Amino acid sequence: MDPSIPNSNTSRNLDADGKPLYPSVYEFDVFEMINKNGDKKNISNLVTSFVIAEEIFSPVLTAKIRIRDNDNFFESFGLDGQEIVRVRIKYLGSLDGGEMAYEYLEHEFVVKDYPLFEKTKESINVQEYEINLISPVAYLSRLQQMSRGVEGNPIEAIRFIFERYLATSKFDYRGDENGYLCKTDNLKAVITQRTPLQAIEYLRSLCFDKENSPFFVYATLVDGGIIARSWFDIIDNLSNPLYKPAEDEDSYRIKPFSEEAKPGTIESLKELRSKIISLSSNIKLDKLSQAVAGGMGSVTEVIDLEKRSYDEERVFPITATIDDKGAYRIRDENNISRGIGFATRSQVDLGFDFSFLKNLDFMSIADLAPVLDNVLDDPRMSQRVHYLPIDPHFGEWISPAHLKREALPKARKYFANMETQTHEIGVYGDPNLKAGTKIKIEIPKAVDTNEDDPGIDETISGFYIVSTSIHTFENGVYTNRLRIINDRNVIPPPQLPDDGSIPISTNQLLT
Question: In 9-34, which positions are buried (b, 16+ CB within 10 angstroms) versus exposed (e)?
Fold first, then answer.
């Protein structure tokens, strides 16, 4: 890094010898804007902040630039909303091997709009404005509409749309090695008058793996392409191993760091890279909303015009109720109630356990069983999905309605449970903290400050998936703000064994 570069994004985290004091040093190696005439201008001296956002829910990267203009750049360069921004950032990469290695991060964006322009009396000769940027795929998609038939695997149709309509050839279809592929290979559907990205989202909604978990199609800043991956593949330890801040640091943590490591050394940088510098959480524990959203069960209702018949399929997770004699009963996936005797709470996983309602003053245990049956059957507790007709195709092909009828009731439980506990954490900048990355966090317990080691709060700590990663380059400091999802809360409860037997312990039931 060259500390002599006279702009606001020069790293201020260097010692007298030019060595980084923090693992967040960066430099804009290229930051140029290209106008509609093809003219190029280096704007690194004008940029006061640059923010890039990526998430597993979208194949589009978004960005925002904040400009401080005291050189009449807005008028002289002829800004009119048809610009392209190309950026190449030099940053401190891997710290493994005992050496500081610098790497490069580059991407190209298209200007979407200029939402803010400011001038004040205090700085009459200075103007500030913001520029919203989007990936080229989003810009190209808005300019097109498509109508076409689709046959075969939805993922391959998604790949074709990216290549044909959005000029994106780098497509990473994850899951080949561990089998978490889209299980559908005989889809037959028609896409009518949709933008390419709308068509991709529609096809993505028809992709489910062997565990009936949904697929995500997203982009990351590091990979520079499109990734298609199922949720089970994302949370799988083999296909998506834990990302470590450094070779001897496996967790991001809030804790005092040792004073032994000398600032600017590899040991100090590794320790700082694993430091959580801010944390806010939404632990929710909102079981009511979770149940109503379909985390408890789903009902698919289908009218088959060909057979003139009506079909209703109920899919519930393992759910226990209490009969009028105080015995637990289990509803299986076919909504059949099975008695399992007088079990204790520790022996049976109740899933969405509404038995606490017996503590209401106006309800007795005798009233509880029929009330819970009503709860299970209430349409608000089981998301109803209507498809028409059930399957218009014959032979080898299946329709989107047929596909969703089979997979969506179970897949909905993933979405309902996916964000039951989330955190937003701030860490020192690392481009490898991308959407879909698995990390581990350690949060200390709330205890008396006189204790030397408060221990780890196991309720909040654990393994999480990065759902959103926001990269911020401002005032010479690079940081990541991460929204992380707890992967323990997204796997649906197991089904009952085929022979109707009941596992003895809760551990057996959950494994």
Answer: bbbebbeeeeebbbbbbbbbeebebb
